[in-house]
């Protein structure tokens, strides 16, 4: 630990003393006693409100320290700080902390929400954009080389006339992209060094081809699309740091390759996958997922896969109606990957729906067991009200509901007009029904088969009233937003 002495006077007592702001590996440690001083004494401060037990905070910690060091090496006035929100509860409440990590940037004491990435480069680039010009002026060849070497991705605009319309479009695009540094040059020697003839934009990267030149007209939209598609590796590894880039990016179609690093799959398959990915850049994002990671087992379950099926691949489209696709042949040969992705792009693939085998005794217990194959026959029986719980085996709320739901089934087991049923929604999927949170309870009403979602208390009495009232008691508000769902903090089916 290092100590930065911050001295101030306490007016009420006229006694001078020093408060100490600790620095943990270059990151200031703020508390309620020194927070105001730390903010007012530094023009630019990025503050992370964290919880020691938070997995995302633990993943961010080393990158946060690296970012602080990079800024210190650049002799930047920007400081990074952190607050243990579980200890400093008053500070957390004062600054509206509702989740971890919450990161805020203070500029001359005024806070704004941090919207950058979670790697050291992304943090530094975001901060430099917020405190300086959107594109750094590069005068010499050495300036450019140093600028390129400093980041994994760097974008440079080559314009002999920096006031041209193309240059203005470049600066406008740079102003909207915080994850990567932008530079601009008009120096003849730089143009010659990088073989540039005329106006253009070049993206330099420390992976894949190393360099990409913008093709087509230099418009703000084209530049943004160019940076989006070229700034990611041809095959991007899925982890905590890249998840937001993958699932929050412009490309919504993803080829997911499940590989075991321990079994040598990375070395065996990735080179061929990169070659194929070149032909689909901007259309399909290629993602590798290390199946050895314990955190990734839920992703396998989401696709109804077992670990012994690895290596394997799936395609997913992350639009409003999410769709998944499974190849006919499981091998990850270059030709098979290319054929699978091309068929998807050409619209030749049919969605893959998960389904369990129907148990022989599915209707022998008071709570009937539904799978994809018998769902419609049971749920859309016009002579009966059918209550269905869509659950996940690992869901804690579902486990708590189980004995209550069994009691409900027992109550109505002899009814000629009411059926109580359940379906494992992690292993069975329906084209007409998308389940986003667990448990979800729906009533399929007799007669018109109207679907009524339950939003009442999950008690035996509440569920009984819901059934006996034909779905009027406890009915969910139509088109209720997900943000208001009481289980919105639970794992969602669309969260990989």
Structure write-up:
Residues 1-18 form the signal peptide. The chain is α/β, with parallel strands linked by helices and 496 residues long. It folds into 4 domains: 23-131, Glutaredoxin (3-Layer(aba) Sandwich), CATH 3.40.30.10; 136-231, Glutaredoxin (3-Layer(aba) Sandwich); 235-346, 3-Layer(aba) Sandwich (Glutaredoxin); 368-469, Glutaredoxin, CATH 3.40.30.10. It has 15 helices and 22 strands. It has helices at residues 35-40, 55-73, 89-94, 120-131, 141-149, 165-176, 188-193, 220-230, 243-247, 265-278, 297-302, 334-345, 372-379, 396-411, 460-468, and strands at residues 2-10, 15-24, 27-29, 44-50, 78-84, 102-107, 110-113, 136-137, 153-158, 182-185, 200-205, 211-213, 235-237, 253-259, 285-290, 312-317, 323-325, 367-370, 385-391, 418-424, 440-444, 451-453. The strands form 4 sheets. The protein has a 7-stranded mixed β-sheet. A 5-stranded mixed β-sheet has the order 8-10-9-11-12, sandwiched between helices. The chain has a 5-stranded mixed β-sheet with strand order 13-15-14-16-17, covered by helices on one side. The protein is globular, with a radius of gyration of 28 Å.
- Average pLDDT metric: 87
Spatial order of strands in the largest sheet: 1-2-3-5-4-6-7
> How many separate helices?
15
Whole-number count of domains: 4
Low-confidence stretches: 1-18, 479-496
The number of strands is 22
* The CATH H-level homologous superfamily of the largest domain: Glutaredoxin
Strand residues, percent? 15-25%
Q: What overall form do the CA principal axes indicate?
A: globular
* CATH topology heading of the largest domain: Glutaredoxin
CATH class categorisation of the largest domain:
Alpha Beta
- Indicate the structural class: alpha/beta
Please state the CA-atom Rg, rounded to the nearest Å.
28 Å
User: How is the biggest beta sheet arranged?
Assistant: 7 strands, mixed
Give the CA-CA distance, first to last residue. Answer: 38 Å
Portion in helices: 25-40%
CATH architecture of the largest domain: 3-Layer(aba) Sandwich
Catalytic activity: Catalyzes the rearrangement of -S-S- bonds in proteins
Organism: Zootermopsis nevadensis (Dampwood termite)
EC number: 5.3.4.1
Signal peptide: 1-18
């Amino acid at each position: 630990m290092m100590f930065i002495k911050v001295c101030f006077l306490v007016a009420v007592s006229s006694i001078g003393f020093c408060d100490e702001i600790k620095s943990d590996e270059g990151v200031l440690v703020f508390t309620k006693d020194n927070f105001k001083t730390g903010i007012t004494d530094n023009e630019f401060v990025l503050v992370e409100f964290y919880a020691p037990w938070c997995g995302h905070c633990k993943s961010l910690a080393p990158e946060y320290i690296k970012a602080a060091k990079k800024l210190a090496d650049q002799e930047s006035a920007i400081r990074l700080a952190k607050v243990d929100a579980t200890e400093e509860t008053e500070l957390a409440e004062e600054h509206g902390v509702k989740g971890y990590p919450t990161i805020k940037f203070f500029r001359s004491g005024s806070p704004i929400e941090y919207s950058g990435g979670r790697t050291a480069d992304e943090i530094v680039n975001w901060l430099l954009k917020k405190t300086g010009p959107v594109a750094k002026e590069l005068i010499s060849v050495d300036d450019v080389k140093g600028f390129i070497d400093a980041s994994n991705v760097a974008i440079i605009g080559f314009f002999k006339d920096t006031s041209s319309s193309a240059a203005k479009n470049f600066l406008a695009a740079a102003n909207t992209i915080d994850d990567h540094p932008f530079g601009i040059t008009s120096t003849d020697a730089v143009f010659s060094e990088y073989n540039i003839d005329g106006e253009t934009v070049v993206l330099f990267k420390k992976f894949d081809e190393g360099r990409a030149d913008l093709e087509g007209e230099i418009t703000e939209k084209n530049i943004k699309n160019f940076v989006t598609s070229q700034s990611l590796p041809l095959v991007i590894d899925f982890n905590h740091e890249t998840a937001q880039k993958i699932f929050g990016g412009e490309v919504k179609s993803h080829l997911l390759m499940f590989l075991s690093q321990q079994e040598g799959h990375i070395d065996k398959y990735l080179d061929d996958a990169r070659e194929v990915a070149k032909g689909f850049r901007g259309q399909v994002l290629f993602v590798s997922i290390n199946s050895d990671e314990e955190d990734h087992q839920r992703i396998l379950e989401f696709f109804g896969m077992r670990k012994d099926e690895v290596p394997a691949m799936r395609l997913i489209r992350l639009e409003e109606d999410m769709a998944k696709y499974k190849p006919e042949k499981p091998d990850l040969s270059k030709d098979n990957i290319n054929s699978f992705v091309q068929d998807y792009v050409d619209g030749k693939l049919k969605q893959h729906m998960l389904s369990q085998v129907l148990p022989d005794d599915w209707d022998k217990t008071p709570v009937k067991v539904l799978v994809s194959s018998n769902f419609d026959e049971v749920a859309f029986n016009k002579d009966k009200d059918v209550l269905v719980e869509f659950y996940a085996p690992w869901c804690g709320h579902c486990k708590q509901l189980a004995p209550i739901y069994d009691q409900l089934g027992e109550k109505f087991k002899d009814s000629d007009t009411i059926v109580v049923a359940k379906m494992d929604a992690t292993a069975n999927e329906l084209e007409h029904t998308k389940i986003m949170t667990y448990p979800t309870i729906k009533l399929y009403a007799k007669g018109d088969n109207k679907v009524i979602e339950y939003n009442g208390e999950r008690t035996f009495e509440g569920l009984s009233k819901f059934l006996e009232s034909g779905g009027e008691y406890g009915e969910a508000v139509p088109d209720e937003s997900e943000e208001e769902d009481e289980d919105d903090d639970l794992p969602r089916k669309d969260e990989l």
